[in-house]
Amino acid sequence: MVEMTAPNPKDVICDPASGTCGFLMVAGEYLRSRHVEIFRDAKLKKHFNQEMFNGFDFDGTMLRIGSMNLLLHGVENPNVVYRDSLAQGHAGEDEKYTLVLANPPFAGSLDYENTAKDLQQIVKTKKTELLFLALFLRLLKPGGRSAVIVPDGVLFGSSKAHKELRRILVEEQKLDAVVKLPGGVFKPYAGVSTAILLFTKTNSGGTDRVWFYEVEMDGWSLDDKRSPLLPEEKLGVVPKVELVAEEHAKNNLPDVLARWKERDRAETERPRTAQSFCVPKDEIAENGYDLSLNRYKEVVHEEVDHVPPEKILVTLDELEAKIQKGMKELKEMLR
Fold this sequence. Notes:
Elements: H1 2-5, E1 13-15, H2 22-34, H3 42-50, E2 53-57, H4 60-72, E3 79-82, E4 97-102, H5 117-120, H6 128-139, E5 140-151, H7 153-156, H8 160-172, E6 174-180, E7 194-200, E8 209-214, H9 245-248, H10 253-260, E9 276-280, H11 281-286, H12 293-296, H13 309-334
Parallel strand pairs: 1-2, 1-4, 2-3, 4-5, 6-8
Antiparallel strand pairs: 5-7, 6-7, 8-9
């Protein structure tokens, strides 16, 4: 998500559900490796150390861990503060950030009276995953961008709030991409199916098409063990050693980044049967702003050789004979 949003030296980055500040830490490492000019310019260096990184959480332990994480990665004075992002009003935080990166809590529910009123103005709901999306729209400056992990239900939920939030992203903002993740990426902690939404706040629309990608493998097994499937130098989004075709099947992430960069060029020509493809905004609107990849993906049907009816009858007769024989043997064993 950091590689796809490509932070720059002037960004003001926020994670409103920061936890251990993993997103902020990786964004800092990205800037250190890609923008060394930050540390040669006094103004940029001050911005990096005091203004760029902002994290909110309401767990005191997480705040301490997150602050320590950023300090150990060279950020001198990160703004990691106590804040209940969904309950408190956002005066002073509105349109303050240019990049929001987050993996907010899922499947929660808040009472209306315990939810910030400015969020309810965007979308009337009790569901935390929808409220967080409304929050990101509130926090971002016009032109700001966001990458956020959401449960699959956000993509196709049929409630009025689900549909309205998707309509806002498509019609009033610029929805750039939906990256579907495999079901086991959060094991052993959770098996929920998720996706990454990438969008830009414009307040004036701008969605021409939405880019979809289906990640099948991320370099790790999708069971509770989450064991590496490739050597360490071939894992991650930017592996140290380039992958061959067979290895791509075990780690799709470098391909996600490569195709993302071509989303306005070569990707627009890909067929719906491919691992990634684009869908026009009008088609999404016609489908009730459904953002589930399977709604638009086309499946290749392999041709099956014609089998004569008499051959099928013989096969069924043989199958019936085997079943009867098996039942007879089972009865004898039970005796």
